[in-house]
C-alpha cells in the first residue's frame, strides 16, 4: 500500500473482499490520503459517484480512476467509504464525524446514512451549536434536523440569542433570522389556537355531559332532584358525573323556586332555560321525553326562530359531536371525566 493510503477496516470489508476484484478506483482526500475502492460498489451505493465514474477524467492514471473528495477530514471520508461497502457505521464514528458524514451523504446521495446522521446530530444540539446545525441542515436539505433546531431555538430563544452563532447569523444571514422569527411567531399563534380550541372543546364536552345529566335527573332522578312520579330513593349514591349533575340539580331547584324568572332578568334561570332548549334541540324522542319543555321547544323550533339561528345550529352540532366523542372515550376509559359545571356559564 502506498504512503498515505488508508486501509478500509477489515471488519467492514471482510465478507466482500474475497468476492471483489482488485480495487480500480482511488479516492483522494484533501489531506492527500488515498483510499482504494471499487467503482462497482461506489456506483451501486451512490448515484452521484456512479455518474462521476461514468465520465472520463483527465486525472485518471491508466486503469485506475481517481475521485477527489476535498474539504472533509480524511478519517470521515474513510468512514463514508466503509459505509458504502458495508451499509454500516459505528455509533462512535457517527458521533465524531456526524457533520461531515451528513454533508457527504447529502452530496453523494446516500439517503440511509444521511438519515442516521441527521438523527444523531439532533442528539448533539446545544444552545451554542444549534444555529450552525440549522444552517447545515438547510444546506444539506435535512428537514428533520432543521425542525428540531427550530424547535430548540423557539423553546430556548433567550439562551440562543446570546450565543455567537446567533449574533453571526444576525449580521450575515438576515433572511434566515427572519425565517426563524416567523417560525416563532407561527408557533406562538398555533399554540394560542390549540389552547382556544381545547377550551372550546372542553366547554362542548361539559354541555354534552350536562345534557346526559338532565335526562337522567328527569327520568330516574339523582341524589336530591328527580321526576315527581318517581319515589326518591333514600341514600341514593351520586351518579358517575356528579360534579356536573350536582350543579345542574342546584340550578333546577333554583329554577323551580325563583321569583324573578327568565323574563325578570335572572341569569341562572336564563341558563337553565337555555339548557332545556339545548336538550330539546338534540333530543330525538317524539312523545315520551320526560325533560320539561322539550316538546314545547320542539314545536317552537318548527315555527322557525331558534332553528334558523346559525350560531345555535353550530352549538347544537358541536355538542352532538362532543357527545359522540365522550361516548367513544367512555367506551375506552371507564372513568373519563369532564368536570366543571361553573365553566358552563361561558357560552
Ligand atoms: Zn346524577
Ligand atoms: Zn332565577
Ligand atoms: Zn327531550
Key attributes of the depicted protein:
Potassium Channel Kv1.1, Chain A; disordered N terminus; 15 helices; BT1/2/3/4/5; zinc ion binding; single chain; elongated; disordered C terminus; mainly alpha; 3 strands; CREB-binding Protein, Chain A; binds zinc ion; 61% helix; three-stranded mixed β-sheet; TAZ_dom_sf; 347 residues
Number of helices: 15
Unreliable runs, pLDDT <50, ≥5 residues?
1-16, 334-347
Total strands: 3
Main β-sheet, in a few words?
Answer: 3 strands, mixed
Gap between N and C termini = 82 Å
> What percent of residues are in strands?
under 5%
Question: Which structural class best describes the helix and strand composition?
Answer: mainly alpha
Radius of gyration: 35 Å
The CATH topology of the domain at 196-327 corresponds to CREB-binding Protein, Chain A
The percentage helix is 55-70%
What is the H/E string? Answer: HEEHHEHHHHHHHHHHHH
The CATH homologous superfamily of the domain at 196-327: TAZ domain
Unique ligands: zinc ion
- Which sequence of strands runs across the widest sheet? 2-1-3
CATH top level assignment of the domain at 196-327:
Mainly Alpha
CATH architecture of the domain at 196-327: Up-down Bundle
Mean pLDDT: 84
Query: Could you say which overall geometry the principal axes of the C-alpha atoms support?
Result: elongated
Amino acid at each position: 500500500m502506498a504512503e498515505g493510503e488508508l486501509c478500509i477496516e477489515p471488519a467492514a470489508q471482510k465478507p466482500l473482499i474475497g468476492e471483489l476484484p482488485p480495487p480500480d478506483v482511488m479516492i483522494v482526500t484533501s489531506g492527500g490520503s488515498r483510499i482504494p475502492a471499487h467503482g462497482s460498489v461506489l456506483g451501486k451505493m451512490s448515484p452521484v459517484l456512479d455518474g462521476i465514474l461514468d465520465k472520463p477524467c483527465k486525472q485518471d492514471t491508466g486503469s485506475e480512476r481517481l475521485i477527489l473528495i476535498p474539504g472533509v477530514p480524511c478519517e470521515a471520508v474513510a468512514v463514508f467509504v466503509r459505509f458504502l461497502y458495508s451499509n454500516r457505521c459505528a455509533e462512535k464514528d457517527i458521533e465524531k464525524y456526524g457533520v461531515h458524514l451528513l454533508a457527504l451523504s447529502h452530496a453523494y446521495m446516500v439517503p440511509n446514512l444521511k438519515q442516521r446522521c441527521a438523527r444523531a446530530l439532533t442528539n448533539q444540539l446545544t444552545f451554542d451549536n444549534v444555529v450552525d446545525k440549522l444552517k447545515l441542515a438547510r444546506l444539506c436539505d435535512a428537514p428533520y434536523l432543521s425542525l428540531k433546531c427550530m424547535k430548540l431555538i423557539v423553546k430556548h430563544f433567550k439562551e440562543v440569542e446570546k450565543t455567537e452563532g446567533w449574533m453571526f447569523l444576525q449580521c450575515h444571514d438576515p433572511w434566515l433570522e427572519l425565517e426563524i422569527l416567523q417560525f416563532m411567531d407561527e408557533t406562538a399563534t398555533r399554540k394560542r389556537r390549540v389552547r382556544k380550541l381545547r377550551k372550546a372543546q372542553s366547554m362542548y364536552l361539559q354541555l354534552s355531559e350536562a345534557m346526559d345529566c338532565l335526562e337522567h335527573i328527569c327520568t330516574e332522578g339523582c341524589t336530591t332532584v328527580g321526576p315527581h312520579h318517581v319515589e326518591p330513593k333514600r341514600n341514593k349514591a351520586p351518579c358517575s358525573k356528579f360534579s356536573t349533575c350536582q350543579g345542574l340539580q342546584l340550578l333546577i331547584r333554583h329554577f323551580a323556586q325563583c321569583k324573578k324568572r327568565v323574563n325578570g332578568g335572572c341569569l341562572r334561570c336564563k341558563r337553565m332555560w337555555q339548557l332545556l332548549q339545548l336538550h330539546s334541540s338534540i333530543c330525538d324522542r317524539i312523545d315520551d321525553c320526560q325533560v320539561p319543555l322539550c316538546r314545547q321547544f320542539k314545536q317552537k323550533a318548527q315555527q322557525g326562530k331558534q332553528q334558523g339561528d346559525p350560531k345555535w345550529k353550530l352549538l347544537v352540532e358541536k355538542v352532538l359531536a362532543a357527545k359522540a366523542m365522550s361516548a367513544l372515550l367512555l367506551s375506552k376509559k371507564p372513568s373519563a371525566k369532564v368536570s366543571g359545571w361553573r365553566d358552563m356559564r361561558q357560552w
